[in-house]
Amino acid sequence: MYKVSYKLHKSKKPFFDLNINGTYITCLYDTGATAAVWCSSKKLFEKVFPERILQDSKFSIGGFGGKSRILSDIFRVEGFKLRQIEFLHFPIVTQFNRNFGCKLILGS
To answer: Which of 30, 48, 61, 76 is the most buried (most CB within 10 A)?
Structure first.
């Protein structure tokens, strides 16, 4: 089980900080995103989500300012809880070392 708390930024964009087991990460809430996307380093991803499972399938991702689509790895994180909402099998698509001003994009 991951312990999560958050703090909103004073910004026009919906950025907020999540504290996941003592590690703070900046997140962006994107109502147009169809999946959660990790944008920071692989090392930090492995630290924040030590209990992750690489899935056999890939995710075709686009919408990052370009028209091309990229096949990305999907990891499943077990027991991710965001306040009162617990995700038993939370999928996270990885785009390591991308600079979008946040470490994790959460879709609706």
So the answer is: 48
**Helices H, strands E: what count in the chain?**
1, 8
Query: Beta strand pairing status for 52-61 and 36-38?
Result: unpaired
**pLDDT at residue 83 greater than cutoff 80:** no
> Is the pLDDT higher at 36 or at 108?
36
Q: Which residues pair with 91 in a beta bridge?
A: 76
pLDDT confidence of residue 9: 64
Distance CA 55, CA 91 (A): 9
Q: Is 78 exposed, middle or buried (0-12, 13-18, 19+ CB in 10 A)?
A: middle
Instruction: State pTM to two decimals.
Output: 0.79
